[in-house]
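Schema walk-through. Below, the input block comes first and the output block second. Nothing else is stored per chain. Lengths vary across the set, and this one has 178 residues.
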Amino acid sequence: MSDIINTSDFDPEFRKEVFEEPGAEKIVLCFNCTGCTSGCPMADQESEYNIRKFLRMANLGMKDQLLNSPYIWYCTTCYKCQERCPQGVKNVDTMLKIRTIAIKNGIMLDNHRKVSQLVIKFGHAVPINDDAKEKRKAVGLPDTPPTVHKFEDALGEVQKVIKIAGFDTLVADQEADS
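--- output ---
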């Protein structure tokens, strides 16, 4: 991200879209007490992760810069920041809204796209294999978990819901769209 901010890059419609999330309008109440970042496990791990900065960017309408930041995906949704906020700012809920907007704009990390594609293909983010089945049996579990792996007809239903929701289009490979 560049340190230079051009007000001509601000998108008021993006701000309105973010503020559709219930509680997101409380962003304007933030007085930078740092309670959110001082308790954030990701801020401890990654110096570029600063939820206050991201929420300010959303409030200003800095759509392109914010949605294209890989750091919006770093939030673990532990809700520690939201619980600590003396102003009741809905930090995590707003970050989730920002991520949703990013996905609707075709922006997501490649690993998220790959996991999503596994869900579409197998109805599961973690496909079952013979090794996993043996490990399950070794700890006294049935070899197949009670998911689409066990109820194979359910995979078609999962895929149908995904298609109706348009999720398959959202997570399609970028190259396939070109």
